[in-house]
């Protein structure tokens, strides 16, 4: 017999194996490799021999730069070779009205987040025995998610929200599940609001058909609570589950 935790863990494992999350694809693997083996900084500069090699336009990274429901655009070693070896990722987080970044963590970096636009609530849970840290970020306000801490972000209103995130690694990684299985169960036992967690997965987790109804995450963001969507007059497109 499964315990309740094992049941939840098994359901989540099935969910995550059937629905891919946003993953950065390395734009120029050969250039990244050459930058690693370059003997001197001048050799590195010779490999990045045009002004275009030093410019990254967040707004042109499609489909990730959007507000319906939103997305995460990373400027890192994979997407921007000039970042290789500089120990940092810069990310732009777009949250359309009522959208959210579901629970996740970064295994190789701490995450500093500052709000540029909108009203965003953040939730962070660092480890077993820790308390849930909840913040409301308005423009000019910031918070930090320590390396490995589980966190999520929710746009509370009917206007777009935008945040800028800095991570102290050029390959920070993003993980929405982990082993052993009890770590998966933490998503539902650490104090995150149950309705928001269920919104992230598109279904009550105890149901047998959760995998088939989970909200696709694709660009890193998904629609949030049905109450907010109704209040803002938003009808998600057919790509996303309607609550």
Brief summary:
By secondary structure, this protein is an alpha+beta fold. Helices cover 24% and strands 23% of the residues.
List keywords for this structure.
243 residues; Jelly Rolls; 5-stranded antiparallel beta sheet; 7 helices; 10 strands; disordered C terminus
Describe the protein's architecture and organization.
This protein is 24% helix and 23% strand. The chain has helices at 4-18, 29-37, 41-47, 181-189, 194-201, 210-213, 226-231, and strands at 70-75, 89-95, 99-104, 111-117, 120-125, 133-137, 142-145, 150-155, 161-167, 222-223. The two termini are 31 Å apart. The strands form 2 sheets. Strands 1-2-9-4-7 form a 5-stranded antiparallel beta sheet, with no helix packed on it. Strands 6-5-8-3-10 form a 5-stranded antiparallel beta sheet, covered by helices on one side. It is of the alpha+beta class and 243 residues long.
SSE topology sketch:
Blueprint: H1 4-18, H2 29-37, H3 41-47, E1 70-75, E2 89-95, E3 99-104, E4 111-117, E5 120-125, E6 133-137, E7 142-145, E8 150-155, E9 161-167, H4 181-189, H5 194-201, H6 210-213, E10 222-223, H7 226-231
Antiparallel strand pairs: 1-2, 2-9, 3-8, 3-10, 4-7, 4-9, 5-6, 5-8
